[in-house]
Amino acid sequence: MTQRLVELKEITKSFGNVNALTRVTMHVNKAEIVGLIGDNGAGKSTLIKILSGVHSPDSGEIWVRGKKVEGRWTVEKAHSAGIETVHQDRALAVQHTIQRNIFMGREITGFLGFIRVKKQNEEAERLMREIGFTSKVFTPESVVATLSGGERQGVAIARALYFEAELLVLDEPTTALSLTETQKVYSFMLAAKEKGSSVLFISHNIYHAYDIADRFVILDRGTVAMTADKSEIESAERLVQHMKDFARASHHPEGKS
Ligand SMILES: Nc1ncnc2c1ncn2[C@@H]1O[C@H](COP(=O)(O)OP(=O)(O)OP(=O)(O)O)[C@@H](O)[C@H]1O
Ligand SMILES: [Mg+2]
């Protein structure tokens, strides 16, 4: 039987009079890649902020490895549960090196609390190789500002993997990336899955998402409009058609056309 890593049950969240999420139920299994898709403002970022402990839901339950979370779910608790999130609105410190970005805020320190730069460099080097940084141009001491968008996502993913993410949550990792760069990010994600981690990622581009996800969750105006295994959807076009149908339904709430 497939094992559930995390599960959100009946999650509702409002900001003032905006109902960002209404009774959303979804889950992520172990070692699977789930694509969370939906239009602007559908509630995707809000949902993953709840999962990662940034926002508290107004109601609903969070379950981790089959156990219901009791009390307030926080960023710290999410981290210790192995949930690492790369948020849409929180970029890397681009003026710093790859190595520094990977360890920022959680440095490897030694005697007297000094940062062990050599050790961090070695670990960064190993991680970069593991997730498939193929370019020989970059070393752990390269400044992030010199990397392409896809490679920057790679650094964020390497950071998450170093901290033993069992669930890697990526908010729009490929937005504004070229196709080649997007492929690069996908290969980083596949490397994470290969290591036994799960990935929940948000994408606007269904054609891209279709290639890599094992399962899809479509959010529409704060509710789950559809979830499907990839095997149930014959093509990316089909998925796009579903999305269009939901969008059309939203313009004609009474079903008139
Ligand atoms: N902190 C906040 N305060 C007030 N309203 C918010 C806040 N965060 C989100 N919202 C509102 O909640 C709704 C869902 O927003 P959310 O950012 O989750 O959507 P999204 O699916 O991630 O969209 P996008 O594709 O544009 O990133 C929107 O109407 C948004 O304006
Ligand atoms: Mg968003």
Give structural attributes.
257 residues, alpha/beta, Rossmann fold, six-stranded mixed β-sheet, globular, binds adenosine-5'-triphosphate, binds magnesium ion
Task: Please describe the topology of this protein.
Blueprint (H helix, E strand, L loop, with lengths): L3 E12 L2 E12 L3 E5 L6 H8 L7 E6 L2 E2 L6 H6 L2 E4 L11 H6 L13 H14 L18 H14 L4 E4 L8 H16 L3 E6 L2 H7 L2 E6 L2 E7 L6 H16 L6
Parallel strand pairs: 3-8, 3-9, 6-7, 7-8
Antiparallel strand pairs: 1-2, 1-4, 4-5, 9-10
Helix pairs in contact: 4-5, 5-6, 7-8
Bound molecules: adenosine-5'-triphosphate and magnesium ion.
The site of magnesium ion (MG) has 4 residues, from helix 1.
Query: What ligands does this structure carry?
Result: adenosine-5'-triphosphate, magnesium ion
- Coarse morphology: globular
Nearest-integer average pLDDT: 89
Provide the helix percentage: 25-40%
Instruction: From the alpha carbons, calculate the radius of gyration and give it in angstroms.
Output: 19 Å
Provide structural commentary:
By secondary structure, the chain is α/β, with parallel strands linked by helices. The chain is 34% helix and 25% strand. It has eight helices and ten strands. A six-stranded mixed β-sheet has the order 6-7-8-3-9-10, sandwiched between helices. The longest helix is centred in the C-terminal third of the chain and has 16 residues, at 179-194. The structure holds adenosine-5'-triphosphate and magnesium ion. Adenosine-5'-triphosphate is lined by residues 15, 18, 20, 38, 40-46, 88.
